[in-house]
């Protein structure tokens, strides 16, 4: 598949896919670790759909592993009562 055949998403499509409002999408796409846009100026940026989905899945895995680590720590945490 050539670069010209890949689907492009703007902030509206990202918002529809993630269920986020425009302001939340703006915060997301301006994160330093978010994939770089492939075309457009600041107001009309477009990203490759597959790179957006890959990024969101990686974030989901990262968040999932962090929540498991926290829950594991909570399970092993014991409070000892002093007499």
Name some characteristics of this structure:
83 residues
Kindly describe this structure.
With 83 residues, the protein is mainly α. It has one domain (3-70). It is built from three helices and two strands. The chain has helices at residues 11-18, 22-29, 49-76, and strands at residues 8-9, 47-48. It has a two-stranded antiparallel ribbon. Helix 1 packs across helix 2 (22-29). The longest helix is centred in the C-terminal third of the chain and has 28 residues, at 49-76. The radius of gyration is 19 Å and the shape is globular. The protein starts with 7 loop residues before the first strand and ends in a 7-residue tail after the last helix.
Report how far the terminal alpha carbons are from each other: 70 Å
Task: Enumerate the spans where pLDDT stays under 50 for 5 or more consecutive residues.
Answer: none
User: What shape does the CA trace take?
Assistant: globular
Q: Kindly report the average pLDDT value.
A: 82
Number of strands: 2
Radius of gyration over C-alpha positions, nearest whole angstrom: 19 Å
The structure class reads mainly alpha
């Amino acid at each position: 598949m050539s670069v010209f055949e890949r689907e492009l998403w703007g902030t509206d499509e990202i918002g529809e896919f993630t269920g986020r409002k425009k302001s939340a999408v703006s915060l997301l796409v301006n994160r330093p670790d978010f994939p770089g846009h492939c075309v457009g100026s600041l107001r009309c940026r477009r990203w490759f759909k597959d790179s957006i989905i890959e990024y969101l899945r990686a974030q989901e895995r990262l968040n999932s592993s962090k929540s498991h680590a926290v829950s594991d720590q909570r399970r092993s945490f014991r409070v000892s009562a002093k007499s």
